[in-house]
Amino acid sequence: MTLIKSISGIRGTIGGLQSENLTPIDTVKYAAAYGSWVKQQRNKENYKVIVGRDARISGEMIQQLVMNTLVGMGITVIDLNLSTTPTVEMAVIMEHADGGIILTASHNPKQWNALKLLNNKGEFLNAEAGQQILDIAEAGNIEFAEVDNLGEIHKNDAYIDLHIDEILELQLVNAEAIKSSGFKVVVDAVNSTGGIAVPLLLDALGVQTVKLHCIPNGEFPHNPEPLKEHLGDLMKMVVDEHADFGIVVDPDVDRLAFVDEKGEMFGEEYTLVAVADYVLQNTPGNTVSNMSSSRALRDITEKHGGTYTASAVGEVNVVEKMKATKAVIGGEGNGGIIYPELHYGRDSLVGIALFLSFLAEEKIAVSELRKKYTAYFMSKKKIELTPQLDVDAILKAMEAKYLNEKIDTIDGVKIDFAENWVHLRKSNTEPIIRIYTEAKSQEEADALADRIIREIEGIAFSS
């Protein structure tokens, strides 16, 4: 059982001991710290925070604790109840709120939950703000409101519809072409809130939808990370239903992956590549993804005359770099699409709408679209952390070992070889070291990852 306190938010497993897991006491502690931070940002009489959640079994309990803690601080809460991460982000903007909290542990299994924290722009907090909240929580001298100044809770279940309305208004979303194409799509929403939002979007675009695992009850039918090894049901149903393609989202709908009409994975790394291809054809410009993402985005960006930039891992880092380079599209290779014309947040719904527009205009099958892009293959492995592992020392040793290669240390250690690369970093969300590699074949990518793991183990056991 685990509690991870980081600038990315507060993430942990439900149950167990206080301070070691995400217990009710820990939930209140960090919600209060966030509320205190919100009030420090601007001196005003009334404060407003948006709160929404995915469909996790623990979600309702955690949401009530969070909302009533904020009420106790004199903050008005707009309760979106079951929602998506990008919808909460949009709601912060549209409500002119002071911040937002999304209760979701993203792709983690059902025993996990988390408080993901937003600023008044509907964007994730930067490192400085995140550290301030952790410091407030540890200091413990948080001031609550007197009885006549308690906050209130206002329910608003309209924001998924409003979010979809904003997507339909985007210039590059060709709703008429999509409707006339007669698409049939299978949707796997892992029994979370994508089961509400994705079918609503597809219905608005005139797409025939076959629902798979779309009941938002939090009973995940498979590991919720949208990877090939977890998606056998979706891959089979796409073929059985003679669908044009399949869609899978994670529990909070900020990661997006596709299955082609043959039941094969499009590749989560290529979600961003394809959407970027469409956006860049219509609005040439720059792109950004994190340094664990495929080189394929760089290739397609340069093809369209733009400049590609890599950021440190983490949505806030991608967004910061996108703003600095005036990127027209960006995101993360795990299927996260950030389209600034809508908002600066990973958003599967806008990704789906842009992908459908691309297919409708090109009149091309999903499998044929995939063939347009350079074939890179990734291996994503991990090493479980133990108290004996000195991660910083291991990374330093790996950096020294490959000193003659192109090295980037803005986030862990990335080693760029001529034909492939490896990125090593400590996860912000799990007690692991991530080892990502990319090469021109799956065998080469896997072999590189396995070699690096052996080298890390050799360093760890020799120290």
Automatic annotation (TrEMBL):
GO cellular component assignments: cytosol
UniProt-listed Gene3D superfamilies: Alpha-D-Glucose-1,6-Bisphosphate, subunit A, domain 3, Alpha-D-phosphohexomutase, C-terminal domain
UniProt cross-references to PROSITE patterns, sorted A to Z: PGM_PMM
Annotated GO biological process: carbohydrate metabolic process; peptidoglycan biosynthetic process; UDP-N-acetylglucosamine biosynthetic process
Keywords annotated in UniProt: Isomerase, Magnesium, Metal-binding, Phosphoprotein
Cofactor(s) needed: Mg(2+)
Record-annotated membrane-spanning stretches: none
SUPFAM superfamilies: Phosphoglucomutase, C-terminal domain, Phosphoglucomutase, first 3 domains
Family, as annotated: Belongs to the phosphohexose mutase family.
Official protein name in the record: Phosphoglucosamine mutase
Gene name, Swiss-Prot/TrEMBL: glmM
